[in-house]
Amino acid sequence: MISREPFESADAQALAQAQQAELRGIDGRGDIGPVRVGAMFEPPDGVFLVARAEDGAPLGCGGVARFDETRGELKRMYVVPEARGRGIGRELLVALEAEARALGYQGLVLETGTAQEAAIGLYASFGYAPIPCYGPYAGQAVSRCFEKTL
After folding, report:
1. Closest Cα to residue 36, out of 135, 144, 139?
2. Fewer Cβ atoms within 10 A, N terminus or C terminus of the chain?
3. 61: Cβ–Cβ under 8 A, 6 or more apart, which residues?
4. How many Cβ atoms sit within 10 Å of the Cβ of residue 112?
5. Is 53 helix (H, G, I), strand (E, B) or coil?
6. What SS3 class is residue 6?
């Protein structure tokens, strides 16, 4: 089950913190972008989703925030390690793209790390194409950026 949830909720925060801890363990960094509050994930500019098991346990998350006038940015995509390989990331990405369309975005951009091969493969399988890294990710050797027209 995937549903909208405030970024400030306990489960969303736990998932986001687990994602950042995992990133620090993979490549020594967390989010190198500007620290922004959960308001970026609120309508009319954004949304945050949480995927849950049948028993309600949080399994993954992701959000869309405004990038510019026509595009959103995927942020905080994460699936807990014990739930990987079950298609949850794919389900989240489908749901996030639908939410981005509903918010009026014509495309999405995202940043991921070079060491996150599974994430890069997921995005490529959904038609995301490499672009030059933007904003705080420009010039970062560990960053890869992608874009998709919706």
Report:
1. 135
2. N
3. 5, 12, 15, 16, 19, 48, 49, 50, 51, 76, 77, 78, 92
4. 22
5. coil
6. coil
Query: Residue 112: which residues within 8 A CB-CB, separation 6 or more?
Result: 119, 120, 123, 143, 144, 145, 146
- For residues 49 and 69, give the distance between their C-alpha atoms in angstroms, rounded to a whole number: 22
Distance CA 65, CA 46 (A): 4
Q: Which tens digits make up the pLDDT trace of 90-126?
A: 999 999 999 999 999 999 999 998 988 999 999 999 9
Sequence spans of domains, the chain = 2-149
Among 55, 45, 74, residue whose Cα is nearest residue 11: 55
User: Where would I find the H helices in the chain?
Assistant: 10-27, 88-102, 117-125
Q: What are phi and psi of 134, to 5 degrees?
A: -115, 165
* CATH architecture, range 2-149: 3-Layer(aba) Sandwich (3.40)
**Which amino acid is located at 112 in the chain?**
T
Q: What does pTM read for this prediction?
A: 0.91
